[in-house]
Write a structure and sequence with these properties.
The chain is built from 4 helices and 8 strands, in the order E-E-H-E-E-H-H-E-E-E-H-E. With 187 residues, the chain is of the alpha+beta class. The protein has a 6-stranded antiparallel β-sheet. Strands 7-8 form a two-stranded parallel ribbon.
């Protein structure tokens, strides 16, 4: 796993990976992310994913952000050390970074962003995906989708509780997933 602030990132074994309890992602879910797949030695749509990651970071007002080159270098180091060339998935998380005191105020973030690259073997078919040959069972969630005027879902932010609660409802109902409606009742 790769973890670190700009210029201070490092690779650590998965079981030793950690971030500070003062990190903004812990204190307030203040982070953005991308999920990237690796197929046959190629990273799928890397430029597009990085563009969206940095666009999300900008929309969230992150300062002292890792450079694109630093992120790319960290990605390749992480894949190489894990020997991953196919059937892998990476979750890139970019947090606002560590604070010097607990607060929601971004002015207390003085160390720069924290980059986390979690690479894992995750085939595109199997336990974590749906069986597209049989169809899937769904419920309509009682939880409504966030309105873009309150929390823009185009920004890949880590405030995911609004998407996790419908998954919990689906699990309790014994179905694969849940449809979400917006505040006006549209899918």
């Amino acid at each position: 796993v790769y973890i670190g602030a700009p210029g201070r990132g490092r690779l650590v074994p998965r079981e030793m990976a950690s971030i500070s309890p003062w990190d903004s992602s812990v204190q307030g879910g203040d982070a953005c992310w991308e999920g990237i797949r690796v197929y046959r030695g190629q990273i799928l749509s890397l430029e597009r994913h990085l563009k969206r990651l940095f666009k999300s970071a900008k929309a969230l007002g992150f300062k002292n952000v890792h450079s694109k080159e630093e992120v790319i270098q960290a990605i390749f180091k992480t894949l190489a050390v894990n020997g991953m060339r196919d059937g892998a998935h990476m979750r890139l998380t970019l947090t606002r970074g560590e604070k010097y005191t607990s607060s929601m105020n971004p002015n207390f973030n003085v160390y720069g962003t924290t980059l986390i690259i979690l690479a894992e073997w995750k085939p595109s078919e199997g336990k974590t995906t749906y069986d597209n040959t049989k169809g899937i069972s769904l419920i309509t969630s009682a939880i409504r989708r966030n309105s873009p005027s309150t929390c823009d879902s185009k920004v890949h932010h880590n405030n995911m509780i609004n998407n996790i609660l419908p998954k919990i409802q689906a699990n309790l109902a014994g179905v694969e997933d849940a449809l979400m409606l917006d505040l006006d009742g549209f899918v």
